[in-house]
Amino acid sequence: MRAVTTERVSDVACDNPKCPQRGVKGAGNVTLRRRYGAEGIRFLRCLACKQQFSERRNTPLFNFKLSKPKVIDVVKHLAEGVPGRRTARLTGVGRETVNRIVLAVGKHAKEVHDQLVQDLDVREVQMDEMWAFVGKKRQASERRRETSRRAWERVGSHRRGR
Description:
Number of strands: 6
Shape: flat
Largest sheet: 4 strands, antiparallel
Order of helices and strands: EEEEHHHEHE
Radius of gyration: 22 Å
Strand content: 15-25%
Structural class: alpha+beta
């Protein structure tokens, strides 16, 4: 059995909504319980509310067994426009793992955006639209009897700044 430590952690805050010390870093209320995984991920405990949690909780890395540099590598490939299959091949991870990373990072980005972008005072909005041809090559389309379609995207931006 592993030894349980009580080392104080100052760079992480408890995120339990019912905790009186929620969101407060460096208050001495979060302790290191143990480390797990090949990377030594910290498993923490809040002394104020007794909640135990992984340091990866509420991050896109939560529930991934991949190392942090590997997940970052996958995200960098995708951000550069590399398709999912090619990203999987270049980074050495499975296609489904790439898909899970995309969903996790996208969900996290939306949550961060929704928290940070609030109560904007926008008087003018400039709208624009673009469309792209979405379809399959003729041979694949004939086999599945699918037709090609247009995909429309509408974008709104503040007129005086982007």
